[in-house]
Specification:
By secondary structure, the chain is an all-alpha fold. It has four helices and no strands. The chain is elongated. The termini are far apart.
């Protein structure tokens, strides 16, 4: 396998993962709309549940899109410029992911352990 055919194959894999990310976002939108229209209201209320469902779909889709960017940048065009562009894309998407995580769950990802453990009991 030549380097050109390898790069072409990796580019196709990156595009497939990109398409998967877009598909996940679209399916997340459809699932959120389906749930808000056809299911009974959750304890959170319809609007808040819709936003959480929509946010989850977008978060998962962003993970796929970042993975595709990493694959294409590292394997197809490993130049300093492309790595810097990838770094900027990853920073922007990470910020979006953190903002969506805060919106959906009301906490940051690294706060999961403390939130799941419950309040600490004071030793008196």
């Amino acid at each position: 396998m030549s380097i050109d055919s390898f790069r072409a194959a990796v580019e196709q894999v990156g595009l497939a993962i990109d398409a998967g990310g877009v598909l996940v976002v679209v399916l997340g939108i459809i699932a959120a709309v389906w749930r808000v229209l056809l299911r009974p209201a959750s304890p959170l209320g319809r609007y808040r549940q819709f936003r959480q469902d929509l946010g989850r779909g977008i978060l998962l889709g962003l993970e796929f899109l970042v993975a595709a960017d990493i694959i294409r940048t590292v394997a197809v065009t490993p130049t300093l410029e492309s790595v810097l562009v990838l770094g900027l894309i990853v920073i922007i998407r990470t910020f979006l992911s953190l903002a969506l995580q805060m919106e959906v769950e009301g906490r940051l990802p690294w706060q999961a352990q403390a939130a799941a453990a419950g309040p600490a009991k004071a030793n008196v």
